[in-house]
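I have been asked to look over a protein record a colleague put together. The record follows directly below this note.
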Amino acid sequence: MATRRPLYYDSGNLKEMSDTQVNQIIAQVSYQYSLNPSVTLAVSTSGGTLSGLPINDTRYKAGNYSTSATSFPGEGTTQEPQLVTVSYARLTETVASTTEPTDVAMPIYSSGGNIRSMTKTDVYDTFIHPAINNLALGSTGTAQGGTYRIHTSTSLAGHTLVSSTPVFIDTRWNTSASYTVGDNSGGNVDQPTTITNFYLFVINGSESSYTPPVYITVDNQLQTHAESNFNGLLQNMVRHAITSTVGYRINYNISGTGNNRGSGMTNTILNGSGNYQTRFVNTDDYRAQEFPNGSPVTDNTYYLRINQS
């Protein structure tokens, strides 16, 4: 690993950049990535291929009712509440095809009193790789611009909603709804209520003010980089490293390896053993049925994770 201190002009003199100045360029790398990410996530209603999918929402519905012509069926003869499973596969990852920049003017640095151009490896080690290390953290600030997280509403400051379609929905039996014993029609058997919707957001970047470095022109003159050109170089290099450089590639998964991003997607369920109810229909029809009950508990929690490999 070869990190350098690039040179810049200050009142006509060449000076080495401070740690603060180098860090400002690292922050600008993150911002440039946020403008054009090379690994993206999309939301669909089905068919998502992200590693770790599908993820399951489970809830209980009422058991089938029992009937007797002489007396109410005992609780031991009625069917217990039945598990309902809804699978979600709504996230797909796309990795762009990138090309490493060629024939570009690299910043200069001083070594033993001599002025040298940084190699591409120097630029990666000094600016690009530290920015990627920041991008892949579990944090969700501007240093992670262009990467993704999960949230429980459709708005979040400093972020942009990718889709109004939830990537996961946690539901439970609606204990507040009315039901009729011995009626298996419609919502009487399965009457879910939505507990939480989980949405995908991309984190917004923030432009960093920085001092452009100096480079050597084709006619061996020293010149300060135009910010637009240097920004383009930084963006192309970070996009390529994230898709192609071992140790700095970024990808996403559900509950695999990596850092959790945003809200955990909780699958909650009622923990009761069944609410036994009876209904007298007529002298030849006694009915009994069990409905979901109990307290909500978390059965599973799924995380969107960002992984650096």
